[in-house]
């Protein structure tokens, strides 16, 4: 359900993020945009009562985190830590705004006959407006999964070996981006092609600690799901002709085994799983290709199949496969819920299937274009080296605008 947004006094700060220009396609928020509880208010007017309630909740969570008994329940400790991290920047800005308003009132009172204090009052008024804008952005509707880690999969598609080579380049791009942000990047499974590309791969990307929602992995990488098209001369092309191929990317919030235990208990019941073991293929070290260490898990009710063979141990491969399957099932469950919600707001927000082509990488022109937001840039080499920030920010801006329109409808 979409709630209304806190309205604070003062003009809203104009975003410094790069604009994608007029005529931009509205962001498809039908994929997953539930609203956090703290975004709802009973009125569009300025409301400090709601902020005071968040401050009180933050203080209560701080006391809980100081209780040694909390850490006996790992799932509850994670939930408390996640919510505390989410509220901390809001509370900090709330206190900063209160202090700035007090200073402003004093400066105005004393500045009637003092030009210097009058100038200080003008500066304080501008600062109050700036803080109000920052708070309004933090309190805007947001995806409840933003603070989560992700499972990201790449799959070679149309284009054969050239598609597999580009799949490997995309995965390196995500690795560079994750490393630059200080995230952990773990390969869960992969299958190489003959020329060193990737037929498919699945990785886990995790933030350190309990990030605020805006800093979560899902908040940044959820926009990468879809078909990525590449235009270039393949290494296998002798006539120098430009070919077009495609790679599919799937991004899912990683299921927290403790948090999602109740939701997934039935789906992951042993009776619903068929587990097969077989010998690993491809390069291997001692024992990898000589024992039945590879694992294939089939989810019988849905037909989902996950295979893992990267680890030397059958048990490790099974654990990795279960992680991927758990996230796929959670993603499918939420996608079904989102489809119902999207039907109710279809008149307000354009929806799109995640398999739709989202981006084109044009190597001859060193150009990248995002077809959802209209973003274009001529620095493809830098983007593939991990400079994804401007591309992702354009998607975040479009997503935020669409959610604010839906909230105000």
UniProtKB/TrEMBL annotation:
Family matches, as SUPFAM superfamilies: Release factor
Pfam family, one: PCRF
InterPro entries referenced in this protein's UniProt entry, alphabetically: PCRF, Pep_chain_release_fac_I, Pep_chain_release_fac_I_sf, Prokaryotic/Mito_RF, RF-1
PTM: Methylated by PrmC. Methylation increases the termination efficiency of RF1.
Cleavable signal peptide: none
UniProt xrefs under PROSITE patterns: RF_PROK_I (PS00745)
Role this protein plays: Peptide chain release factor 1 directs the termination of translation in response to the peptide chain termination codons UAG and UAA.
Protein name (record): Peptide chain release factor 1
Upper classification of the organism: Bacteria, Bacillati, Actinomycetota, Actinomycetes, Micrococcales
């Amino acid at each position: 359900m979409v709630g209304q947004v806190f309205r604070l006094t003062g003009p809203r700060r104009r975003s410094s993020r790069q604009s994608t220009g007029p005529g931009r396609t509205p962001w498809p928020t039908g994929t997953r945009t539930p609203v956090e509880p703290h975004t709802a208010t009973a009125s569009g007017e300025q409301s400090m009562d709601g902020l005071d309630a968040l401050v009180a909740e933050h203080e209560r969570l701080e006391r809980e985190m100081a209780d040694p008994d909390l850490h006996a329940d790992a799932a509850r400790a994670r939930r408390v830590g996640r919510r505390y991290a989410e509220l901390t920047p809001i509370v900090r800005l709330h206190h900063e705004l209160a202090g700035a308003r007090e200073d402003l009132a004093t400066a105005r009172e004393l500045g009637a006959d003092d030009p210097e204090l009058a100038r200080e009052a003008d500066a304080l008024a501008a600062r109050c407006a700036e803080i109000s804008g920052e708070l309004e952005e933090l309190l805007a509707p947001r995806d409840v999964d933003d603070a989560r880690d992700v499972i990201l999969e790449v799959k070679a598609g149309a284009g054969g070996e050239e598609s597999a080579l580009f799949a490997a380049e995309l995965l390196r791009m995500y690795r560079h981006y994750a490393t630059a942000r200080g995230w952990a990047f773990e390969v869960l499974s992969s299958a190489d092609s003959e020329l060193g590309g990737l037929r498919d791969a699945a990785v886990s990307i995790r933030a350190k600690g309990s990030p605020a929602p805006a800093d979560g992995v899902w908040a940044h990488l959820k926009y990468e799901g879809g078909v990525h098209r590449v235009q270039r001369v393949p290494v296998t092309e002798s006539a120098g002709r430009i070919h077009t191929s495609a790679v599919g990317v799937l991004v899912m919030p990683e299921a927290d085994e403790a948090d999602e235990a109740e939701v997934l208990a039935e789906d992951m019941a042993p009776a619903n799983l068929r587990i097969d073991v077989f010998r690993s293929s491809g390069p291997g070290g001692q024992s990898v290709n000589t024992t039945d260490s590879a694992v294939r898990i089939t989810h019988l009710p849905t037909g989902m199949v996950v295979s893992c063979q990267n680890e030397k141990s059958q048990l490790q491969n099974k654990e990795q496969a279960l992680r991927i399957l758990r996230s796929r099932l959670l993603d499918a469950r939420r996608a079904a819920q989102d489809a119902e919600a999207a039907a109710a707001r279809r008149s307000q927000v354009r929806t799109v299937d995640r398999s739709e082509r989202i981006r084109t990488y044009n190597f001859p022109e060193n150009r990248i274009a995002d077809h959802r937001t209209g973003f274009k840039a001529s620095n493809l080499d830098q983007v593939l080296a991990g400079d994804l920030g401007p591309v992702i920010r354009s998607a975040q801006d479009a997503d935020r605008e669409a959610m604010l329109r839906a909230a105000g409808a």
